[in-house]
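Example 3.2
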Amino acid sequence: MQIIRKILIILLILNILIQAKELEVFWNSGFPAARLVDGVIVQGEAWVWSAAVQNNKGKTDSAVFARLAQIESGSLVVLSQVARAEKSLMRLGYFEKNGEVKLYRIANRNRLVPAFDLRDATANFAEASFVYDAQDGGSNGFLMVQLLNIAGTARDFSLGGETAKDFNSVEISYKEPFIFGTNGSLKLRGMFSEEDSVKQVNADLAYIKKLGWEWQYSVGGGYKNSKAFSSLSLLYDDRDKIPLPFKGLSAELSTELSKFVVLGLRGENYQPLSQNWTLLLAAKGFGMLPSKDYEKEDLFFIGGQRDFKALPPRSLRTRAYGVSEMDFQWHGIKSSALHIFGQLGTYRNQLPFRGWEQILAYGLGWEQGVANASLAIFYTLAHQNSPMDGLLNLSLRMGF
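Structure, written as tokens:
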């Protein structure tokens, strides 16, 4: 009897799981009212979407918001799209979550209206950072102004510059959304840099198109020192928010084609460990093909704002490198993050090529948000360095 009872319990659990799966299929096939009645699934009427709206009305135009949400008016209701659309909206940096999404009915037209309870985030920023290398006494400064979602139109603009002892650069970018009546955007970017009297002028234009909520591709081209090049990239991003994500994966594959081929791959995964702890696992690598002696301005920069935290800014030029990182983050205080990180990198030696070298870096960092401002402090040591010979990075970001 006990065996029969166990078999019946297993069959009952399997039946519940099967019915739950069938209900989910109905909910994602235009029948959000499907339910169980006396053990039988009643699908109810089919519904379609109306355009998504911002429940907590902000500066963003309603038509622009609907296009950003990417829920197509008149398409079958797919309830799983709501959570994906909300995460996608949060990643833009235009909004902050105020409450849960609500679904409203237009009964006589069998339509549902998803109303996202989002408020406008501070989208205009001035950011300044200073890096000091105690080992060699070098320093590096960075300043950027960023305007996001200008006048609620989803247009973005940024202007920034970087300066060090032997290096200076200025970069400007502008994004025009929904170009040619599509959901694609055009991004124009220009950069001027000078290092050791070597000047470089870059200008490129890229068409960026989202494929659903997580995937995005970019195709473009431009000029570097009067030499034409073309570029391609494919991005996957399902992080939960910006700028301090707690979970999700981001990965990008990019290539640049001219007289040589530049290949790049980067990825980062945020894995929650508890209510306040998350683990960031990240890696990236770049290389140039074919391998030969290129002009100095063609070689990669590493170090500086986006790469090894432990290397002096703009310290090395190389044709290939890779970085892996493990970063434990604690979010126990509101709008803050404590970083305990380690980085392992490998890079090709300076010309002439003398093999590969490795570097191990580790350190601590703290990010703290206060009202519309945030402060970040990082201190990084390279392996076998004295504790007083680290790299100090201070960054202040002010919203306005």
